[in-house]
Design goal:
Its EC number is 2.7.13.3. It holds the Pfam family HAMP. The chain is an alpha+beta fold. The chain is built from eleven helices and 14 strands.
Length: 508
């Protein structure tokens, strides 16, 4: 074997056939599904109905011929009697000929004495088989299926009680009449033909009616599809539920809910883009004005002053763009999923406060942290939570005067881990506490620099974590004119893991 053939053989052994396509990725037809579930039982029941019809037809065909056999046995039994202890029959030859007269089937009869001796008729007709404990009785005519010379026959038989002496049990003679099954089979076939042949005509009609009924029943879906397709790209109005069948109403209601949310989202995006464009005009216009002014200046001091203003405008524009990006990231975060993880809220708050210490020194504001010594764990996105807390600290540092203080506090109660940011500034009036979370909203009379997006980012990230931002006056404020503000977020504590038996404490 050459080296190339060995490599080819190894490759053939390593080959794995491609996996079958997952059934979930295959698009199914609703019409075909309903048609399959309707026709499959119908086509399954049809051969069952044929089999049942055949059995019923055989039963119906047996009844008249069984009655005729019963009459023959009764008549023949009336001709059997015992005289001087011998069994004799009073059946004349003409009666025997009438008994055997049949143009289609062969008829056999037999008379046996009490001891099985042959009295008259066909010797080859088999006797009835009785159980060891079963005794023959003369009460009724009985029927059984057997064979005669290899041909199936239907046999009617009865036991005839003969004359007997007092005190001695009367002996029983056996009378049997047998008939082949040709007439029965013909009658059963005629019955089956009369029942089955119309089904061959009815079945295609039923299939056509089922097809038509399904097409007619699913036509509202096609009409709904045409109405939706005929809409304009900007038409997000709800679909009228009264124009669709009751079974489709839940689907239409869900679609209307989605259209409402989509319309609200599009309107929010349009408003956001318009507000962002409007807000970007101010720093960009300032940068352009300062740059043009610097170009016209000849004094180096004036040029330096214009460049400083240009740097401030650039810084404001950069901050606005960064906050717009932060808000976009917050809005596109899933509420629950792989981004959530178990983290220490106290450690995250402590490290975030350390990042803002230098900024607080520059603003001459006392920034502090209060929290537990042990880690306080919650489920959340660490990047988004750090962004949220940074915006709360930045908002406090910007809107309170120099010499005030900002405290970040982490604590817990029985069910929540609580994050608080409090300051000793001018506070937020109760009428303004809901509006401050709106995008680009600024409290009138406030001269602090800002984009108006910080608290909007805070609320969005809080919603992504399933919590609300609550605003109060600072209960630790000491000056009536500076009531301060307290921002509070209560995160649910994660459930405690179950204690394994091996880890359970032992109190022996």
């Amino acid at each position: 074997m050459t080296k190339d053939s060995a490599v080819q053989q190894d490759a053939a052994l390593d080959y794995q056939p491609p996996a079958a396509e997952a059934d979930e990725g295959i698009q199914h037809s609703l019409f075909g599904e309903i048609l399959d579930w309707m026709l499959a039982p119908l086509l399954l029941l049809w051969p069952m109905s044929i089999a049942i019809t055949y059995l019923v037809a055989k039963s119906i065909a047996n009844q008249p011929f069984d009655h005729a056999l019963e009459d023959s046995v009764t008549v023949l039994a009336q001709q059997v009697r015992a005289v001087d202890g011998k069994v004799i029959k009073g059946l004349p030859g003409s009666a025997r000929d009438i008994l055997r007269a049949d143009d289609i089937d062969n008829v056999y009869f037999q008379i046996q004495g009490p001891h099985g001796e042959h009295i008259d008729g066909d010797r080859d007709l088999p006797p009835p088989v009785l159980d060891e404990e079963e005794l023959p009785t003369s009460a009724n005519v009985h029927f059984r299926n057997d064979s005669m010379h290899g041909t199936p026959v239907r046999i009617a038989y009865a036991y005839v009680r003969l004359e007997h002496k007092p005190g001695v049990e009367a002996p029983l003679a056996l009378v049997q009449v047998a008939e082949t099954l040709e007439k029965r089979a013909q009658l059963a076939n005629e019955i089956i033909k009369g029942v089955i042949l119309p089904q061959f005509i009815i079945l295609p009609i039923v299939l056509a009616l089922v097809w038509f009924a399904l097409a007619r029943g699913l036509s509202p879906l096609a009409q709904l599809q045409e109405r939706i397709r005929a809409r304009g790209s900007d038409d997000l109005s709800p679909i009228a539920p009264n124009q669709v069948p009751e079974e489709i109403s839940p689907l239409v209601n869900s679609l209307n809910d989605m259209l409402t949310r989509l319309s609200s989202s599009i309107e929010m995006q349009k408003r956001f883009i318009a507000d962002a464009a409007h807000q970007m005009k101010t720093p960009l216009a300032g940068m352009r004005m300062q740059s043009e002014l610097a170009l016209r200046q000849t004094d180096s001091a004036e040029i330096h002053r214009s460049l400083e203003q240009l740097a401030k405008s650039s810084e404001a524009a950069t901050r606005l763009v960064n906050q717009l990006l932060a808000l976009a990231r917050a809005e596109n975060q899933p509420q629950a999923g792989t981004s959530m993880q178990l983290l220490s809220l106290s450690d995250l708050a402590r490290s975030t406060v350390q990042d803002w210490v230098s900024a607080s020194f520059a603003a001459r504001i006392d920034l502090g942290y209060e929290g537990p010594d042990e880690p306080l764990e919650i489920e959340g996105n660490p990047t988004m939570l750090r962004e949220m807390l940074s915006n709360l600290i930045d908002n406090a540092l910007r809107y309170i005067p120099a010499g005030a203080s900002v405290t970040v506090r982490v604590r817990s109660d029985e069910q929540h881990a609580i994050l608080e940011v409090e300051d000793t500034g001018p506070g937020i009036a109760p009428a303004e506490r809901q509006r401050v979370f709106e995008r680009f909203y600024r409290i009138l009379g406030n001269k602090a620099e800002g984009s108006g997006l910080g608290l909007a980012i805070v609320r969005e990230i809080a919603h992504q974590h399933g919590v609300e931002v609550e605003i109060y006056n600072n209960p630790r404020a000491t000056q009536p004119k500076l009531p301060g503000a307290l921002f509070r977020l209560a995160f649910p504590l994660p459930p405690e893991p179950p204690i394994e038996e091996s880890e359970a404490p032992y109190y022996g």
